[in-house]
Amino acid sequence: MTDTPRHALRYSTIDGEHRHELEIKRSRFIAVLRRAETEDEARALVAELRREFHDARHHCSAFVLGPDRMIQRSSDDGEPSGTAGVPMLEALLKGAAVDGVPDLSDTAAVVVRYFGGILLGAGGLVRAYSEAISTALATARLVRRQRLRLLRVDAPHAAAGRLENDLRAAGVTVLGSDYGPGAASLRIAVEDDEASRSAFAERLASLTAGGPSAVDLGTAWVDLR
Fold first, then answer.
1. For residues 206 and 208, what is the distance between their CA atoms, to the nearest angstrom?
2. pLDDT in tens, 157-214
3. Helix or strand or coil: residue 110?
4. Which pLDDT tens digit goes with each residue over 81-137?
5. SS (HEC) of 23-76
6. Cα 151 to chain center, whole Å?
7. Taking the model in full, what pTM does it have?
8. Domains of the chain: residue spans and CATH
9. CB neighbourhood size of 171 (10 A)
């Protein structure tokens, strides 16, 4: 089993939805950030805001999707080419960088603009749309996501409670327990690398005196709270 680079195992995203408004030379810039995991979800945000702010002149958008941030899209929505969508996308990528590496993903952003009657010029628009996103990110709550290896450990009913407590005390993430007619099943999550998997196997063996081994259930992305 080949380990995945650590930077591809975790990323940050918006915790739900967040809004922030700026006024620049009488123009209103309403930035809306929302967690989105598909292009359809990202485009749905644009459609919703077009209905909510139906009298606004522009609904510019950008989104970045996927743990590897492979899907990146932007739209100027009538603003001069390159003055809105691209600056918004760049601000999304820079806003939650870790050690200079882009970290934010699964995030859709829309900036609704109400024109205030004063032309900002190309440079002014770039700065305004970029600032709308960066200030919104600065005030938004983010959630960390991590790809973890899921495991199942079966144990007799009489031993399951103590085993769960011992695992939690050792710093192991126990997602929950399922009690069936013959045994209990503990659902475990560990970091998805060989060292973490080996360390858990050794810890489990020591706690169960060489008892049952963990069953590999594959991987899943988990929100870290």
1. 6
2. 888 889 999 999 988 989 888 998 888 999 999 998 889 999 999 999 988 887 788 9
3. strand
4. 999 999 999 999 987 666 666 689 999 999 999 999 999 999 999 999 999 999 999
5. EECCEEEEEEEEECCCHHHHHHHHHHHHHHCCCCCEEEEEEEECCCCCEEEEEC
6. 23
7. 0.80
8. 8-140 (3.30.230.30), 146-224 (3.30.70.240)
9. 7
